[in-house]
């Protein structure tokens, strides 16, 4: 791997520097199928230009089929886009748009375990793509809200019909959004935060 | 038109599922860990600090004259607090490689790590209120 000299490494713009008082960060994960708008959502609310962190794994690490022996391993790069919002002088929020396939999640230690909660972004043209993700979050006890990204040619279902189809309890917020718009993406994040707050009030958060 | 239907699942009160098993390669990797393709530093004991994607890293000193280019870059970037994820992105290093590098810098007392706040049983409501207020200001 070629490593560029330290002088050529791009860093944050001066205006993007966090204050020295920044003591801790929290994270929210945006999860959904390919092309559902995760990256667009991260980009529309982030205060910094969205960045990408990568991880490399071998094909054998995917754990699907290891019958061919080590000589058949090939490297796979998994990328995750993220953005940042400064909450206070002490607190920073990071947003991660992560692939829907659970086999990638362990690459980033504690990605979901430590997150405040998750936004499951769905496309009504391919609703079933999000089924497995929701199940995994339920199994892991990660609180989530469902955000329906409105694509112009996507079928429109009433929220209650979606709730039935997705088999979600009445307490789980389902919100329609247009992730290209900052105000809309912000509403989704606020919906999640209010939901987490209500869980904290009821003592239901584990 | 009727949408496809899902069946909800229940929390499995147990630790997260183990990583898919891999055959140990070259003896250096523990079974159950994906094989990492990069090594930056000569860390042989395999110990890593508990570094999260959003652990904030702050430089404690200027780069020593003997610093490697990547160490110098990290220390220069971290004059203001910067998360592990951002360091990985700016240096274009896989997160696992970044973890190894930062672990060494913590041991050498060249950087300080500020741990993230994670979800827990007794959730801090004031924290969530702060996040709400911060989002509303966007």
TrEMBL record, chain A:
UniProt xrefs under Pfam families: ATP_bind_1
Keywords from the named record: GTP-binding, Hydrolase, Nucleotide-binding
Gene3D superfamilies associated with the record: P-loop containing nucleotide triphosphate hydrolases (3.40.50.300)
Matches recorded under SUPFAM superfamilies: P-loop containing nucleoside triphosphate hydrolases
Listed InterPro entries: Gliding_Motility_GTPase, Gpn, P-loop_NTPase
Family assignment from sequence similarity: Belongs to the GPN-loop GTPase family.
Protein name as catalogued: ATP/GTP-binding protein
């Amino acid at each position: 791997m070629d490593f560029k000299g330290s002088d050529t490494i791009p860093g944050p713009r001066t205006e993007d520097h966090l204050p020295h008082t920044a003591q801790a960060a929290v994270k929210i994960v945006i999860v959904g199928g390919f092309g559902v708008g995760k990256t667009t959502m991260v980009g529309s609310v982030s205060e910094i230009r969205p960045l990408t962190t990568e991880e490399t794994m071998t094909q054998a690490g995917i754990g699907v089929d290891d019958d061919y022996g080590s000589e058949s391993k090939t490297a796979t790069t998994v990328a995750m886009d993220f953005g940042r919002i400064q909450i206070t002088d002490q607190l920073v929020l990071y947003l991660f748009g992560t692939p829907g396939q659970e086999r990638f999640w362990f690459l980033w230690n504690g990605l979901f375990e430590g997150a405040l909660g998750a936004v499951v972004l769905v496309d009504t043209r391919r609703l079933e793509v999000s089924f497995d993700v929701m199940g995994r979050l339920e199994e892991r006890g990660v609180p989530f809200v469902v955000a329906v990204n409105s694509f112009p040619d996507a079928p429109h279902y009433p929220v209650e019909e979606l709730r039935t189809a997705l088999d979600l309890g009445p307490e789980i917020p389902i919100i329609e959004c247009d992730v290209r718009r900052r105000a809309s993406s912000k509403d989704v994040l606020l919906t999640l935060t209010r939901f987490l707050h209500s869980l904290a009030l009821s003592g239901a958060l584990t | 038109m009727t949408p496809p239907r899902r069946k909800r699942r229940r929390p499995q009160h147990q630790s997260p599922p183990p990583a898919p098993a891999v055959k140990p390669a070259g003896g250096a990797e523990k079974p159950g860990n994906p094989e990492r393709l990069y090594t930056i530093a000569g860390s042989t004991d395999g110990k890593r600090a508990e570094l999260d994607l959003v652990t904030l890293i702050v430089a404690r000193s200027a780069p020593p004259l003997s610093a490697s280019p990547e160490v110098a870059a990290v220390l220069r970037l971290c004059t203001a607090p910067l998360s592990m994820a951002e360091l990985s992105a700016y240096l274009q290093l896989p997160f696992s490689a970044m973890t190894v590098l930062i672990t060494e810098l913590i041991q050498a007392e060249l950087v300080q790590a500020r741990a993230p706040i994670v979800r827990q049983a007794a959730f801090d409501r004031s924290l969530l209120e702060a996040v709400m207020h911060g989002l509303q200001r966007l």
